[in-house]
Amino acid sequence: MTKRFMIALLAGCISLLVSGVAWSQSQNSTNDSSGQRVEALSIKGKVKSVSLETKAMLIKPKKGATLHITFNEQTTLIAFDSFDDIKEKQSVTIWYTVEGENNIAVKIEKAPDTGC
């Protein structure tokens, strides 16, 4: 194989590795509960656990590490009537901001049911 081909192959492998990380978490903007635009990260995954006492949940994306997310009264819910409706194994998309070492949910959206 030529040196040029090997370099192109290596560059392709690196871009696939980087895009896998970006696929599970991405940065975009959303509206917070007051309607203000907020730059936020987002993650799609399944709820691994949720605690109403600590107002926290663990989200497991298809690829990548489990993420600890906290929520509060300012967190907007979409397709949930209340935080009580969030259950383990539900598919969700969460927009969140990072404050220090905390991931704080701006918006939590339940994925549509795809069952028969």
Helix content: 10-25%
How many strands in all? 7
Going by CATH, the homologous superfamily would be Copper binding periplasmic protein CusF
Radius of gyration based on Cα positions: 17 Å
CATH topology: OB fold (Dihydrolipoamide Acetyltransferase, E2P)
Mean pLDDT: 82
Structural class: alpha+beta
Kindly, what is the distance between the CA atoms of the first and last residues, rounded to a whole number of angstroms?
51 Å
Shape field: globular
The number of domains is 1
Show unreliable segments. Answer: 13-24
- Assess the beta-strand content as a share of residues: 35-45%
**Main CATH class:** Mainly Beta
Our count of helices gives: 1
Sheet having the most strands: 7 strands, mixed
Order of helices and strands: HEEEEEEE
CATH architecture: Beta Barrel
Keywords:
116 residues, single chain, 7 strands, globular, 7-stranded mixed beta sheet, alpha+beta
Explain how this protein is built.
By secondary structure, the chain is α+β, with helices and mostly antiparallel strands. It has one domain (3-110): Copper binding periplasmic protein CusF (OB fold (Dihydrolipoamide Acetyltransferase, E2P)), CATH 2.40.50. Helix content is 19%, strand content 45%. The chain contains 1 helix and 7 strands, in the order αβββββββ. Strands 1, 2, 3, 4, 5, 6 and 7 form a 7-stranded mixed β-sheet that branches. The longest helix has 22 residues, at 3-24. It is globular, with a radius of gyration of 17 Å.
